[in-house]
Design brief:
Low-confidence stretches: 273-279
Largest sheet: 7 strands, mixed
Distance between the termini: 61 Å
Strand content: 5-15%
Number of strands: 9
Shape: extended
Order of helices and strands: HHEHEHEEHEHEEEHEHH
Structural class: alpha/beta
Helix content: 40-55%
Length: 279
């Protein structure tokens, strides 16, 4: 019974001491964050407390130094972003969105609009019923061109036909093209923009399993180098992508037999990461 009472008494003293230390710590941290000249109140009732205050002060100094570095870095980052935006304003962008590729294109166009940059957007779909975000895109795009394969809405035909019309017939000039959609669409957009001399960025969408590059599912060849879309991309120079290989792998990787065949054919380059996982 006595031992139990002593234990409870000791526990209460420990908790009280912890609470007191925490209050001093919070006060010290608050002073740092608020950049106050006031020093937190010190309780020097014991040597142990003095040691705690020294540790708190050192920790507070470290936090203050890191905060100053963050603030300085933030100022540098803001200036860099401003410079980047000014550079963006000097260029004319064309976005090509195919099918569900409209979803990732929309926020990019919206961000550019919010920063005073108007871009042209081509939205392509098999049929009118499969179009998405048309009204939202119309509100943020400088010019919106809609095309459907079956002609049920907008221009009838492929997005590449609209690009040809804009450049060859309407005299439009673009510094950069961003294409996001089915691989077959991105392939032919890149083939055309290469002929037209328009640098093109694509967002690759091969099968991704683990998101670390080790499964080998999203392996792509870009400029003769092996890349993994999940860790090296998904954005790549569209003119450097081996589209035929990428589309072949996308189909082959869907079956266990196909994955085994690719693993055998590609050897050590089949995987990213450690290169030795069992996938």
């Amino acid at each position: 019974m006595k031992a139990q009472q002593e234990y409870e008494s000791l526990t209460e003293r420990i908790e009280a001491q912890k609470e007191k230390k925490m209050k001093r710590f919070i006060a010290a941290l608050a002073a740092v964050i608020q950049e106050s000249d006031e020093e937190p109140a010190k309780d020097t009732s014991s040597e142990e407390d003095d040691e705690d205050i020294v540790l708190i002060s050192l920790f507070s100094l470290r936090i203050k130094t890191e905060c100053e570095l963050i603030r300085e870095g933030s100022r540098d980052l803001v200036e860099q972003v401003k410079e980047d935006i000014e550079e963006l304003k000097k260029k004319k962008y064309l976005f090509v969105a195919g099918g569900v590729g409209t979803a990732p294109v929309y926020p990019q166009v919206k961000w550019l609009k919010e920063h005073g940059i108007d871009v042209d957007v081509i939205m392509g779909s098999k049929t009118k019923d499969l179009l998405i975000l048309e009204e939202e895109m119309k509100a943020v795009a400088g010019n919106l061109y809609v095309t459907t394969d079956d002609g049920s809405y907008g221009h009838k035909g492929m997005v590449t036909e609209v690009i040809k019309d804009l450049v060859n017939n309407q005299g439009k000039k673009y510094d950069v093209c961003v294409a996001i959609g089915p691989m077959i669409m991105m392939k032919f957009v890149c083939k055309l923009t290469k002929e037209l001399g328009i640098p093109t960025v694509v967002s690759m969408n091969p099968i991704m399993v683990d998101g670390t590059g080790m499964c080998g599912g999203c392996r792509v060849s870009v400029g003769g180098e092996i890349k993994f879309a999940c860790v090296d991309g998904p954005e790549f120079d569209g003119h450097l992508v081996n589209w035929d290989e990428a589309m072949m792998r996308q189909q082959t990787y869907k079956t266990a037999e196909g994955r085994a065949m690719l693993k055998e054919l590609e050897g050590e380059t089949h995987h990213g990461g450690c290169g030795h996982c069992e996938g």
